[in-house]
Design brief:
The chain is mostly beta strands. The protein has a domain of 121 residues. The chain has one helix and 13 strands, in the order H-E-E-E-E-E-E-E-E-E-E-E-E-E. It has a five-stranded antiparallel sheet, with no helix packed on it. A four-stranded antiparallel sheet has the order 1-2-3-4, with no helix packed on it. A four-stranded antiparallel sheet has the order 10-11-12-13, with no helix packed on it. The N and C termini lie far apart (123 Å).
Length: 211
């Protein structure tokens, strides 16, 4: 009889312990979206999914919400500077210009870099189409260069580095992509429903010295 009472007591304590364990177990909260900016019916947000983080545009229409991917984030920490969206009109159509900057810093024994990456995108949100995606990087770099194989002698080299094209949106909805060696203007072609190159002036030839 004592053994039977003891068995019931053990079963009761086991059930109570398991219930307490279940009560303490809570589902992990769903990460909240980070809102970067809003304009008109568009909200730019950082969303977290099983596959990682993304920057997206949520475009609210009459019957649905479209999700347009702006950028997949390789880094968990995304801190854009001056993330903006503004509308513009060209050839009777309304588009949106998305722009932001990211600071880049590298600090090692052999290299120090301070840079800025600028992202420019043009969106036709009505047709869920990315019309242009442009990335440009400018940085100030200081590197230690070794003068021999044994790395006994070295000197520091400082230089400015530019990668990609500088972007400029004109008042009429055309845009310019410019580098040190070339400059091209693109205009929207309503028939083709895309931007096409309008002009690409050649770099001026160096003037000949007079003898």
């Amino acid at each position: 009889m004592k053994r039977l009472v003891l068995l019931f007591a053990l079963l009761a304590s086991t059930v109570a312990f398991s219930q307490k364990g279940k009560a303490k177990t809570k589902a992990s909260p769903t990460p909240k979206n980070i809102i970067l900016t809003k304009v008109d019916n568009i909200s730019a947000e950082v969303i977290t999914e099983k596959s990682g983080k993304r920057v997206v545009l949520f475009v609210k229409n009459d019957k649905q919400v479209d999700t347009l991917e702006v950028k997949k984030l390789d880094k968990a920490d995304f801190k854009p500077v001056n993330f903006t969206i503004k509308s513009y009109t060209t050839q009777g159509k309304k588009f949106y210009y998305v722009n932001w900057k990211e600071e880049v810093k590298v600090d090692t024994k052999l290299k120090k870099e301070n840079g800025v990456v600028t992202e420019d995108q043009l969106w036709d949100t009505a047709n869920k189409t990315l019309l242009l995606g442009n990335t440009q990087k400018s940085s100030q770099v200081k590197e230690t260069i070794f003068l021999d194989a044994n790395k006994t002698a070295s000197h520091d080299v400082e230089k400015k580095r530019n990668e990609g094209f500088e972007f400029a949106l004109n008042a009429d909805g055309s845009f310019i992509l410019k580098s040190k060696t070339q400059s091209s203007t693109y205009a929207y072609n309503a028939t083709a429903d895309r931007y096409e190159i309008k002009s690409s002036p050649k770099a001026a030839a160096p003037s000949k010295k007079r003898r």
